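Handoff note, outgoing to incoming analyst
You'll be picking up this chain. Sequence as last confirmed:
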Amino acid sequence: MTHSLKQLAIDVGNSRIKFVVLHTNLPVKDCKQLPLVEHAVSMPIDEPIPWDQLRNWFGNQPEEHCQSVVAGSNPRGIIKIVSDWPLTPLPSPVEVLNTADFPLEIDVDEPRKVGIDRLLNAVAANTLRNTDQGAIIVDTGTATTVDVVSTEGHFVGGSILPGFELSAKSLHDYTALLPLIPVADLRQAEPVVLGNHTINAIRSGLFWGQLGAIRELIHQFQNHSLFKTSSESPLILLTGGGSSLLASHLDDLVQFEPLLTLQGLAIVAQKISGIR
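Most recent structure output, in case you need it:
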């Protein structure tokens, strides 16, 4: 017997919280299908939670066909969500942690210190990649991570560098005269390459520097010995808050999945609960 599972997935980051309502048709027949996104909203970490909007999105789904799940890199933000949780009609949230029962092999020196978002991305990548194909995942947020999933489906590490917002803030905070450039400025138009004044020069450095770093890391990982025995090139995925800025410049390389982390969170919640 088939039915639809509706999930409210919440990713609590350092500067923003993302809320997504997804649905999955159970039992899952297509192993390459991610949970489908119905609604999504992102808000700064210090703004009030839009509970009324979330209730409306969740609708009148039977309780046994519903699930709420929360994870993220900001423990205080998660406590804020859980402590403020309404009694009804949203089901009490399952908190996903990087613990021993996490459904992913984590092949690094200190597995429990890996950020949960990076692992959720890897879980989603394992749903999308072919057998014996590895994956490279670019996630652009406060920090940008470029991570690798082996051909066996193990998370094996990657690289971490400052994202757009952190880079802009660092230039402002650690110099005497450079202004703070909001990330929203980069969304208005593609930054010029040759900046003819200070603000345009910073915009150029932030945008093209980030793009160049990501391209180089992808290139380095594609040529890593980890993938030498595979006949298939690794799947390359692009996600995260800054991904829409970069997608058109990387479309020759990547598959754009802007909500990959939350889809991975939904998959993990299903597996932990024995639903999937």
